Amino acid sequence: MSETATEQIVHQPDNAVIGVSAEALTMVIEVRANEDHADTLGLRISITGTAGVDYAYDLAFVGPDEFADDDRKWEIEGLTILVPEESVDRLTGATLDMPANATQGGLVIRNPNRPNPLGDITDLELTGEIPERIEQLLEQRINPALASHGGFATLVGVKESTAYVTMGGGCQGCSMSQATLTEGIQKAIVEAIPEITGVVDSTDHSSGDNPFYT
Questions:
Q1: CA 164, CA 134: separation in Å to the nearest integer?
Q2: CATH number among 3.30.300.130, 3.90.1510.10, 3.30.420.40, 3.30.450.90, domain 130-207
Q3: Are 40 and 64 spatial neighbours (Cβ–Cβ below 8 Å)?
Q4: Percent of all residues in the chain with a pLDDT value above 90, rounded to a whole number
């Protein structure tokens, strides 16, 4: 969510994953009061998928019998908040808040984290030396995603902790290719291959169909 936060964040314990504004906390507690056995219910906040350039979220009241052993749990002002383990990294640093537009209603999650536009890479098993693993990542995940836009990426080489790639097809000379490299390819490579800390675009974009480097 790109809106500006509207309220002061309530003080929370060190193990809290997501901040909660005072106004949002008041709303949650008021809504919970209408539920059966309200005082026993916790609020679970989880990521369920993606919605465009943002994550999709689910907020639900759950009873103690639904608390999972690996949930990250903390309490503020009598409310237990839970985040499933698989959502912790992607929700870290986010804030549960009220919408900036008071007529919108409901709650918003302002999250500095964004999904990788090239998809999830956590299910891939990459083996071999660093260049081999990058090639596998390109073949199995990155290039199939770029193919829908008529493009592809190729590994040029690896020097120390930096990978050098070129972008071809519809990506060469495309004004969006730098965003694709930064938001998608670089993020995917760095996440999948921890030895790599940087990715450099070695493409000659001036020779593409729609050059933006002149």
A1: 10
A2: 3.30.300.130
A3: yes
A4: 51
